[in-house]
């Protein structure tokens, strides 16, 4: 092959560089995600920082002729996001890979908007969605999870490059964490995630990933709801929330404001398959 043809070689035929130390392995199924713990920004050396994106966690599995998109809990949501599937196929050309990332719906200023994401999903409009990849767990018959974050990120950057309309890489910023956090809050973003640059990828709750939010928040499971009388289509009027303490589910309070009408219609349909005859308390 002459030099001109080598320089014109497409990404489709590129032999991706496998990082040293990666283990040869058959392609895995769904991998339980690494979950960051909530905490203050680490100040020691050896941490990298990136913006926390307000979206849905997605794990993308790319095989020759097939892309599968899994939620945080391992549910197959491939059919919901054809634009993401197409974007991955175009960009990776069916290179066997597993990517960890976040599905977002950018607003007019490019900021992730969770409400817009929910609306787009409810209305089956995936064309406005963007998948931001921030970790690479598997590449061409090699498991990368035992490698350092820095090595995995380097391989991810080589794989994604500049991305495309629907697939991008989440920037890993090696700057001061406090400075980035202040900037994120001024931009009205959710916060930042600090990650140990020398840590392997491990499933479950890990202190090698720490999320710091601009606004204090917590998770409150929905234990009951009231439907708006006579509403068509049906929608939620109020929610009853729980809280977990010492392994028990306790009543936390009622929420009935702060929702858009469209969200209340969407939420009512989402809750339908989870109705049970007895109180969960």
Automatic annotation (TrEMBL):
<feature type="region of interest" description="Disordered">
    <location>
        <begin position="1"/>
        <end position="29"/>
    </location>
</feature>
<dbReference type="InterPro" id="IPR050191">
    <property type="entry name" value="ATP-dep_DNA_ligase"/>
</dbReference>
<dbReference type="GO" id="GO:0003910">
    <property type="term" value="F:DNA ligase (ATP) activity"/>
</dbReference>
<dbReference type="InterPro" id="IPR012310">
    <property type="entry name" value="DNA_ligase_ATP-dep_cent"/>
</dbReference>
<comment type="similarity">
    <text>Belongs to the ATP-dependent DNA ligase family.</text>
</comment>
<feature type="compositionally biased region" description="Basic residues">
    <location>
        <begin position="10"/>
        <end position="23"/>
    </location>
</feature>
<feature type="domain" description="ATP-dependent DNA ligase family profile">
    <location>
        <begin position="122"/>
        <end position="248"/>
    </location>
</feature>
<dbReference type="InterPro" id="IPR012340">
    <property type="entry name" value="NA-bd_OB-fold"/>
</dbReference>
<dbReference type="GO" id="GO:0005524">
    <property type="term" value="F:ATP binding"/>
</dbReference>
<dbReference type="GO" id="GO:0006281">
    <property type="term" value="P:DNA repair"/>
</dbReference>
<dbReference type="GO" id="GO:0006310">
    <property type="term" value="P:DNA recombination"/>
</dbReference>
<protein>
    <recommendedName>
        <fullName>ATP-dependent DNA ligase family profile domain-containing protein</fullName>
    </recommendedName>
</protein>
<keyword id="KW-0436">Ligase</keyword>
<dbReference type="Pfam" id="PF01068">
    <property type="entry name" value="DNA_ligase_A_M"/>
</dbReference>
